[in-house]
Amino acid sequence: MRLLLFCLLLSFPVMGLAQTDDSLKVREDVRFTHYLVTSGQYNDAIYFINHLDLNRTSFKSYLDSIYFLKGWAYYSTKTLDSASHYFLLTTPQTSLGVKSRFFSAYNYIYKRNFAEGDQILQSMALPDSQLIELRFLQQAGIALLNRNFSEFEQIRGNFTDKWYSLSETEGKLNDYYDILSTKRMKSPWIAGAMSMIVPGSGKIYAGKVGEGISALFSNAILAGITIENYRKAGPRNFKTIFFGSLFTIFYCGNVYGSMISVQVVNNEFNSIYDNKILFDIHIPLRTIFN
Amino acid sequence: MIFIFLCVLSLISATAQTGYPDSLLASGDYRLASLEYERLISKTTEARELNPLRYQRAKCFKLLGEYSRAQVEFSKISYWALPDSLVAVYKYEEALCDYLAGSFSNVIFQTDQLDSSALTNDLNANVTLLRALSYNELMEWDKALQAALLYNRKVHSLPLADSIANLLVDYYQPKKLPRLKSEKKANIYRMVPGLGQAYAGRPIEGLFNFSLNAAFLSFGAYQIWHHYYITGYFVGALGLNKVYFGGHARTAFLLNKHNYKVRKDFCEKVKTALLYR
Fold first, then answer.
1. How close B245 comes to chain A (CA, Å)?
2. Comparing C-alpha atoms, which of A124, A35, A2, A32 is closest to residue B20?
3. Which one, A78, A252, B6, B126, has the greatest CB density within 10 A?
4. Residue of B nearest to A14 (CA)
């Protein structure tokens, strides 16, 4: 009887030990995952998380952390779609959930999925004024990226200049707005017409001076060769026809190329400012949620 | 009794810590094993405990084929905290990863630091083999031959050792060593269109290049002779310029390709002879 009582008494700490052991193991797994992410071993972190049995009861209270860490690992390896997916699995009302949603929205904005990004920003219930202004900042960035200047003007009315972490970016967005709203894009039709009159001038108009001069020289040389053969050998000579055809091809190519150059230059300009906007709206996220 | 019971439990869990990654390594799950070793590393600060963990992790990367990661892991080992016998084993593995990663001068550097008296016979032979193969890749033929003959004596028994030794000595005769084409000579030969390519081992391509150059030159000269100055100058001269300097670039490319292939073939030949069983 005494022995039975003794064994019964012993079983309680053993059972407790087993349960505690499982919780400790889960906590250790989460700690290790955090270690892998903070030490920059992102692919290893993703691999490790994929091997965890997240259906275990002990993991329930750590799921937000695991989803966030996995999302962060994907985000750091520039796999933005997967990052957004895991960020959005976190509980919305927690601090981790708020941080995750801001980064998820940024990922969608970066991938030019502005509607999705805006929807995530709108759906957040934010606890303090700094985060509310951060949201306005992100939405202002979306408006600029969409070149929707009226919407930007509306949103920037909410900038307070109160927060150090936001004021510099707000100033930059205002500068970009001033530049983008007054910028007159070059016309491909004007470039084409100029190149028809003087080969290469359309490319110079587009800002590509070297290419324009090169086009001018190549067209001039071929024209000279064609004229020389036309004058000396006549119009039906093989060399006249050959170099004449070559000149025609180069001439048409020069006109088409000038029109394309203008489109390329316009796209380059837009791309430069889009990258600046994306870079600048990203900085407050890293500063506030460091 | 409860106290003893709990102590035994905790002892079991402590030994299981290194047992789990070791069992993963043994079962072939190298990726998970490397992660479990990293977990133990993250909880340890003592060099004596870290070193074997880093070594095992490096072995996992080696088995996964990630030799540069293995090299990084080896570089974190504190050799001062290791006994000489383990230094030999670790250095050999590190040298092997360097060889597999293509860092041949590192192999020589690592193995130079080994004390041969601390090496077992097998390890000694393997180190010699690594050195022979690395000297080959570095084109240090005399040292490669010495190391190759030494390795041959260690692993092969007579009469096989004698026949392999004769084979090796034959391979390393000055006439039979890889004859690499000289870059200086190639730069001189390529002044003549097509000659550079022929020297680099592509005579037909050289002939074609020569014909192209001749064609443009003749065309230009013919046009100018018949008073077609613009045609002759721009088509003849510009075309000639393109194919002439194009031939230069092509010669440089073919030369590098030829030298690489010749060296590679020789190294493979020696490797096959040394690893013959």
1. 20
2. A32
3. B126
4. B6
